[in-house]
Amino acid sequence: MKECIYLNRIFSGIQPTRVAHLGNYLGALKHFVDYQEAENTESFFCVVDLHALTVRQDPKELHERTLDLIATYLAIGLDPNKANLFVQSHVPAHSEAAWLLTTISRMGEMSRMTQFKDKSKGSSETAGVGLFSYPILMAGDILLYQTSQVPVGEDQKQHLELARDLAERFNRDYGDIFTIPEPMINKVGARIMGLDQPEKKMSKSAESEFNYITLLDTPKQIEKKLKRAVTDSENEIRFDPENKPGVSNLLTIESVITGQSISELEQHYQGMGYGALKKELIEVVTDHLRPIQERYQEIRYSDELFHTLRKGAARANEVAGETLAKMKKAMGLIQL
Ligand code: ATP
Ligand code: LTN
Fold this sequence. Notes:
This protein is mainly α. The chain has two domains: about 10-190 and about 305-330, 3-Layer(aba) Sandwich (Rossmann fold), CATH 3.40.50; about 210-295, Tyrosyl-Transfer RNA Synthetase (Orthogonal Bundle), CATH 1.10.240. About 50% of the residues lie in helices and about 5% in strands. It is built from 13 helices and five strands. It has helices at about 20-35, 50, 60-75, 95-100, 105-110, 115-120, 130-145, 155-175, 220-230, 245-260, 260-270, 275-300, 305-330; strands at about 10-15, 40-45, 85, 150, 180-185. The strands form two sheets. Strands 1-2-3 form a three-stranded parallel beta sheet. A two-stranded parallel ribbon has the order 4-5. The chain is globular. The two termini are about 30 Å apart. The site of L-tryptophanamide has 13 residues, from strand 1 and helix 7.
């Protein structure tokens, strides 16, 4: 890959905690596959294992989930010859940049991060410091690659704003080093809701497995979960997230997977009931996930996985190392 031909860089990361769910896929992962094709753009898709450590992980589980997620990247169609796929801890610059950026971060702005408030559930005395400062690590992830665009789901918007603020502050205080990143949040699918609780986003950390469909769920599990998905007491298929969050969520899922617009789907379902919507959606989701799951089984235990990781890490270290060196120099640290 020749650096000079790239004008833009795209970076995104996913945590290797549990198997990716439809929310991760429709809000972020699925779009990565399109972005790797963008002209004059180099993309970096990272498995952010250091982020996962912000909550207690079983080491064996973390190890396996990290490999699972790289296999998922490949299975959905990410191509190591088009995009750089790598694991965060293979690039030490991420940890170093996080410290340098910590020194310019403010308690006030960090205390306003809503994800920390949610995840620490108000118990800030016992919540980990890593959970609190993790948006700084995330800012480093992005800034190290001189990223111009960051495809993420809606929930990451505030973290992106912090990354922009830190980049601007660093550029102002130490010299113009960082590209200011922009979020790329798709209109449809940026916030897939929990199947059992459609007022809240679908989440890996949800208590019930009926909240989400994972990319590795069997056809039986998909059927069971969608049949149980919460709707409402009417029987009219209409997109109205405020009053009909469950039905609207199912329409959104079908829309992002099939590429049909929401209004096309509303038309299609006119006069039909929720049973018909669920039946069709079960088929759509199962058919869409089948080839992904087949490819996943082929590569999960193959050499391709480690080959991909080594290639991705080599390029990521090159780019991130260059930015880190600039940061250190600008801050007055001695380089040998
Ligand atoms: P948790 O669900 O436990 O909060 P997470 O799934 O949000 O974890 P990640 O795996 O790091 O954490 O998320 C990866 C990507 O998926 C991010 O870009 C995030 O914005 C997106 N994402 C997560 N949940 C949803 C959702 N329900 N709808 C759309 N996008 C989502
Ligand atoms: N914080 C994100 C994951 C993440 C990320 C990133 C996303 C870590 N670093 C850099 C985009 C860019 C999350 O929890 N979903």
